[in-house]
Known about the structure:
Blueprint: H1 6-18, H2 22-34, H3 36-58, H4 61-67, H5 69-95, H6 110-122, H7 125-138, H8 145-170, H9 173-181, H10 183-202
Helix pairs in contact: 1-7, 1-8, 2-3, 2-6, 2-8, 2-10, 3-6, 3-7, 3-8, 4-7, 5-6, 5-10
Amino acid sequence: MDAINYPLILVAALAAIASPGPATLAIASASMSHGRIYGLGLACGVLTGSLVWSCSAAFGLAALLSSNVWVFEVVRYCGAAYLIYLSLKSLRSVFGTSKLTLSQSHSTTLSNIYFKGLFIHLTNPKAILSFASLYSIGVPATAQVSDLVTVILLVGMLSSSVFLGYAVLFSNHRARSTYLKSKVMFECTFAAFFGFAGMKILTGDIIK
C-alpha cells in the first residue's frame, strides 16, 4: 500500500473515539454535574491527550512504548488506579451529599479539570493501542512527514468534534435537569463503570 487510506483511518478513529469509555464518560459526568465550561475544559484535556498519542503513533513512539513492557505496565497501573479513584469519588458524591444540587464548581478550577481529562487519556492503554493500530493499518511505511501531519490534523479535528460535542450535548439544561433528578443513579453508574474499567485494565483486559 503506497497511499494513505483516509476513509479507513477516519472510520476507525471515529469508532475508537466516540465509543463509550473512560474519557467520554468523564466528559459526560463533568458536563452534567459542573456545567458546560467545565465539560469543555475536561474535553480539552482529553483532546490534548488524544493529540499526544496521535503524534506518538504517527512517528512510532506509541508502538515503541507498547513494546517496552515495563513502561506500558507503569502507564496501565497508573490508569487503573486513577479510574478506581474516580469510582470512589463518584460514590462519595452520592453518600456524602445530603441535598442534591447542581454544582457551581467553585471548588474545582478549570486547570484541575483540564489536567484530569489529560491524565485520564494519557494513562488509558486503550488510547495507546488504538492509535498505534490506527496508523499501522492506514498509513504506509513510505508516508512523508507532511502526510503524517495531515493525518494528525484530520484525526485531531474528528476528535475535537466528538469530545467537545459530548461536552455541549451533556451540559444542556435538559441533560443537567435529568442528572439532578436522578443524580444517585447517574453517580452510581459512573462509579460502577469507572470501577469496572479500572479493574479490567488492572487485570490486563484492555477495555474496548
